[in-house]
Amino acid sequence: MSKISFCPRCATPLTSVFDGGRDRQACPDADCGFIHFGDFSIGCSGVVLREEAGVSKALLIQRGQEPFAGTWQLPGGYVENDELLSLAVEREIEEEAGVSAKVSDVVAFRHMLGGPSSNVYMIFRLDYVAGEPRYDGVETADAGFYSLDDMATMRGVQNISRWGIEQAILTTPGSGLTLDTTGTRMPRWQVFGLAETDPAVWQQR
Ligand SMILES: [Zn+2]
């Protein structure tokens, strides 16, 4: 875990405390209470599906900048610290590719160690709403809707993106983790769960 020396909230030198089964860096100022759990980040991306002539196509963008300039990937980005997941992915897709879409369900996620932070990368399936793919020529070099057959002949489609698209195209929409709108809801919470296939099961409870 990365080491930091001073409290990012109050600049007091950090000390080591035993918390949650291991030593962690913590602020000795009781009023502050900061504990350094480590560096974490959440990425989100979306498989926006659109039918063209009976074929399912997914929105892809081509990276215009390093790292991996020229490769194709799902539109997405980092979730802001004060932003809920489903809103983050819809915002990123609109900003990056000019397409408005609505979250359907979570089809996959990846957890990765070894980068600058411990990173969770969520892949959502979204319903296309409006807009034609656009690119800015700087961050993005191209954008469009492509089928799995198209991708078989395209160079530089990122593996994690292709895998997410397969998860989304080859499974039933809504069969992944869906945003719960029926259970107990708390402000600033989002709860995702598997959709119940048989409503009668719920009624028997
Ligand atoms: Zn502090």
> How many β-strand runs?
12
Distinct small molecules: zinc ion
The CATH level-2 architecture of the largest domain is identified as Alpha-Beta Complex
Order of helices and strands: EEEEEEEHEEEHHEEH
In the CATH hierarchy, what is the superfamily of the largest domain? Nucleoside Triphosphate Pyrophosphohydrolase
* Count of domain modules: 2
Q: How far apart are the first and last residues' alpha carbons, in Å?
A: 44 Å
Helix content: 10-25%
Class based on secondary structure composition and strand pairing: alpha+beta
Mean pLDDT: 92
Main CATH class of the largest domain: Alpha Beta
Poorly predicted ranges (pLDDT <50, ≥5 residues)?
A: none
Short description:
This protein is α+β, with helices and mostly antiparallel strands and 205 residues long. Helix content is 17%, strand content 38%. The protein has 4 helices and 12 strands; from the N terminus they run βββββββαβββααββα.
Describe the fold and architecture.
This protein has 205 residues and is of the alpha+beta class. It has two domains: 1-38, no CATH class; 40-178, Nucleoside Triphosphate Pyrophosphohydrolase (Alpha-Beta Complex). It has four helices and twelve strands; from the N terminus they run βββββββαβββααββα. The strands form three sheets. Strands 4, 5, 6, 7, 8, 9 and 10 form a seven-stranded mixed β-sheet that branches. Strands 1-2-3 form a three-stranded antiparallel β-sheet, with no helix packed on it. The chain has a two-stranded antiparallel sheet with strand order 11-12. The radius of gyration is 20 Å and the shape is globular. It starts with 14 loop residues before the first strand and ends with a helix. The protein binds zinc ion. Residues 7, 9-10, 12, 27, 29, 32, 34 line the site of zinc ion (ZN). The site of zinc ion (ZN) has 8 residues, from loops.
